[in-house]
Write a structure and sequence with these properties.
The structure holds 3 protein chains of 3 kinds. By secondary structure, chain B is of the alpha+beta class. Chain B is built from 7 helices and 11 strands. The termini of chain B are far apart. Chain C has a domain at about 20-250 and about 350-390. The chains are: A mainly alpha, B alpha+beta, C mainly alpha.
Chain lengths: ~160, ~240, ~400
């Protein structure tokens, strides 16, 4: 057939393109990760990978299993809703191996982070000008951090 | 605090077991967690935020957030009189070390913690060319850092500025709502560290979640509602000046 | 924070899309524009521009080969870039663009060049020796049929490919515009006009580039510039430039009039951080000046040498102006905060992967590639290439 003879080169081109497309799908079969598409257009295995990241903050619940007395003291006081690690920092390592001593937080820097008086803070939030209030004396001299109100049960004394 | 040695001998193994079960939380090891039973979100209570920056520091510690980038940050607004369109906003190092003391004046001040809004119709997942960022079946927008090309299209598409390219890993990074924690029954690092309860994790599929009651009875907003992103981080008492 | 004015969301301070992302729409724009010029000859039967037909196609190919390079250099993980073809996310304009690029390269440009040059390729495969012979033989795909009927089929199919190629070229560069224009988070980008503006500015840059290349290569070869050809190209350049400028002005006027929440911030940015690149480079030097110059050639009868100089000047300024436009879109879109309360600065290094030296190299790279292409497939006008060019003479 004349048309095929004179268009032979076009059929070769088409064949080349078809071969390329086929090769593409073959490569794709090998390269696309197995779990892709499991839950949506993404690698399903990624979810488990992300969920397996290391934990740094143990969470108040874990602290309470050993330190029930502190939890008890805290629950009655003004810091009841302040979780342990909010002041003590990440303690998962300590929970994992209690022989690791996390050290006590430095109240000189710690307390003022929340309680330094600022017009920007909510008006009903307890805040003081540290100099005027304590004149350089460390906060825990008078305030027991776990139940800081003066005169509270297991609180501090003036 | 005093613990007798006897108490310690009893408590230590108990704690170890408790901690083990927490650490062991792979999907297979926690058969109780079914993704489709959860739809995670967060409530931020603006009047409670005191701008202490605990959440920013906790997130950085929990998630190895690189210097100069933020998975969560706190902004401080100062609105003079009725000028909602011209607030003065600062976020020194994302609020990492708190904020400078503000002097009393006529305006109103408040703090706005921000994080990834875990959008249900997120523009970031829409534009990802390869499917490296996605919303999990339990409602958390995540980045597959083994698949991400680092093209930064998602960073451009996020209206809230909550994404960045990790300077060392060269892939997209952002708040994961501490997915690795919430799957194990813990709360997020930022909520754990917040001293005033201004940030609270919420599970919208849990009918007993106290946030449901809150959402039904309080005036809540999302950031940039006109973007129609389906944002799932709700704010209580969000001022109209917030950007 | 150094370089930051006002308030920015903390993660916005550094720019994520660098000058490389400025280059990529510029280079694909040159491709689309060059192709449109070629299609003027083939589809719209503008005989006058025929001398530039083949050169325009090869120019498009040279630039299209370079186009993915800025993207690869920009990616955090270029080794994963094949993922865009393996698992393309259909809702992503960027992913779909990968296929538009592939379609345009393979199904349009390469096929059209092959069909148009096939007779020459066959002739060259028969008249050369050594590796050149094998190169041309491979390019013939093993077929040496250059009978009148076969060539007629080539002509018809080539015409069809060019016909499909015109909307494909629009799609190629319109898509790039859509990549920006579909980002609702960014008011500097988000606009239905963006793809259209990109297409017309692409045409300006591509046509200007081919015009300059034609004039330069003709001079280099010691031949006479076909003034009828260049006059016609300049005329098309002028009218397309008017449309492009009108579209940009429409966007500007619309923004100023509606003055939505982003306006004050964007206005301030244009008057300060973007002043030089937008007002001076893009508008004054890169658009108004070439428009005025081209206008002069349209209304006045000027001597040939004057016209040539004006075309060279206008063409060069247009290329600068369109590059500035890409800069203003990409970089400008990242200089302001999405809070509309602050601005940052663009820090471009000199010798890093995304720095100035690399950018200059990428802009120049298509030229040596084009030089190689014209050696392999001489595009020079009828009557000049039937004799075997010296470069492929038998050793």
């Amino acid at each position: 057939m004349r048309i095929f003879k004179d268009a032979g080169h076009l059929f070769r081109l088409a064949a080349l393109f078809a071969a390329g497309t086929l090769l593409f799908f073959v490569i794709r079969g090998f390269v696309v990760p197995r779990s892709f598409g499991e839950y949506g257009h993404y690698r399903g295995a990624a979810i488990a990978e992300i969920a397996a990241h290391p934990i740094r903050f143990a969470g108040q619940g874990t602290c309470e299993t050993c330190h029930a007395d502190v939890a008890q003291a805290k629950s009655g006081g003004k810091h009841a809703q302040v979780h342990c690690e909010a002041c003590h920092g990440p303690l998962a390592k300590h929970a994992d191996d209690p022989s690791i001593d996390p050290g006590k937080p430095d109240t000189a820097a710690l307390c003022v982070r929340c309680h330094a008086a600022s017009a920007a803070r909510p008006k009903d939030f307890p805040q003081v000008d540290a100099e005027q209030h304590a004149g350089g004396v460390a906060c825990q001299t008078c305030h027991q951090p776990h139940s800081p109100a003066i005169g509270a049960a297991s609180g501090g004394t003036k | 605090m005093t613990i007798t040695r006897r108490q310690l001998l009893i408590l230590l193994p108990a704690a170890a077991v408790a901690w083990e079960s927490v650490l062991a939380g792979t999907p297979e090891a926690s058969p109780n967690y079914t993704m489709t039973e959860h739809w995670w979100s967060m409530l931020i209570d603006i009047p409670k935020c005191i701008g202490c920056g605990n959440c920013v520091r906790a997130c950085q510690a929990e998630n190895d957030v690189p210097d100069g980038f933020f998975r969560t940050w706190v902004e401080r607004y100062h609105v003079a009189d009725w000028h909602l369109a011209n607030p003065e906003v600062i976020s020194p190092d994302g609020g990492e070390e708190g904020f400078p003391v503000a002097k009393e004046d006529q305006g109103k001040y408040f703090f706005v913690p921000k994080l990834c809004n875990q959008c249900a119709d997120s523009p970031c997942t829409q534009v990802c060319p390869v499917g490296a960022t996605f919303i999990s079946p339990d409602g958390v927008v995540l980045v597959d850092q083994k698949y991400c090309l680092g093209c930064a299209y998602c960073v451009q598409a996020c209206p809230y500025g909550c994404r960045y390219i990790h300077p060392q890993k060269k892939v997209a990074d952002k708040c994961t709502l501490c997915y690795h924690r919430i799957r194990k029954g813990l709360t997020t690092a930022c909520c754990e560290a917040c001293p005033t309860g201004a940030r609270q994790l919420a599970d919208l599929k849990n009918p007993n979640d106290p946030i449901h009651a809150f959402l039904k009875t309080n005036s809540v907003q999302v950031l940039k509602p006109q973007m129609a992103t389906g944002a799932k981080v709700f704010y209580n008492a969000l001022d109209g000046s917030v950007r | 924070m150094p370089g930051v004015e006002g308030f920015m969301y903390p993660n916005e301070v550094s720019l994520y899309w660098s000058v490389l992302i400025v280059l990529y729409p510029y280079i694909t724009g040159l491709v689309a524009g060059a192709f449109i010029l070629a299609s003027l000859a083939r589809i719209f039967r503008v005989e006058a521009v025929k001398p530039t037909y083949r050169l325009a196609l090869l120019t498009a190919l040279a630039f299209l080969i370079v186009a993915p390079l800025p993207l690869q250099l920009h990616l955090g993980h270029p080794e994963r870039s094949l993922e865009m073809y393996m698992t393309p996310h259909r809702s992503s304009a960027m992913a779909m663009f990968g296929f538009v690029y592939l379609w345009y390269l393979m199904a349009v440009l390469v096929v059209e060049i092959w069909l148009d040059f096939r007779a020459d390729i066959v002739a060259l495969s028969q008249s050369t020796r050594g590796w050149r012979h094998w190169l041309y033989k491979a390019m013939t795909l093993g077929s040496d049929n250059v009978s009148p009927r076969a060539l007629q089929i080539d002509e018809r199919v080539g015409w069809l490919v060019t016909l499909i190629g015109v909307p494909s070229a629009f799609l190629l560069h319109g898509y790039v515009g859509f990549i920006f224009g579909s980002i609702k988070a960014n008011p500097w980008w988000s606009s239905p006009l963006m793809p259209v503006v990109f297409i017309f500015s692409a045409m300006v840059s591509g046509i200007a580039a081919v015009m300059l290349l034609y004039m330069a290569t003709t001079r280099m070869r010691g031949k006479v510039i076909d003034m009828r050809c260049v006059d016609t190209i300049a005329m098309y350049l002028f009218y397309i430039f008017i449309v492009d400028f009108s579209l940009e002005m429409l966007d500007l006027i619309h923004r100023i009039y509606e003055a939505d929440e982003s306006f004050r911030s964007l206005d301030f940015m244009v008057h300060t951080r973007l002043y030089f690149s937008q007002i001076v480079l893009q508008i004054l030097v890169g658009t108004l000046t070439p428009l005025v110059l081209l206008f002069l050639t349209q209304i006045a009868t000027l001597r040939e040498v004057v016209r040539k100089r004006i075309y060279a000047a206008a063409g060069s300024l247009a290329l600068v102006g369109i590059l500035a436009m890409r800069w203003n879109v990409v970089i400008g879109g990242q200089l302001f905060s999405k809070s509309f309360l602050g601005y940052t600065t663009n820090k471009m290094a000199l010798a890093t992967r995304e720095g100035l030296l690399v950018s200059i190299a990428l802009l120049l790279l298509p030229l040596p590639i084009l030089a190689v292409l014209v050696k392999i497939l001489p595009p020079w006008p009828e009557g000049e290439h039937t004799a075997i060019p010296e470069a492929v003479a038998t050793p």
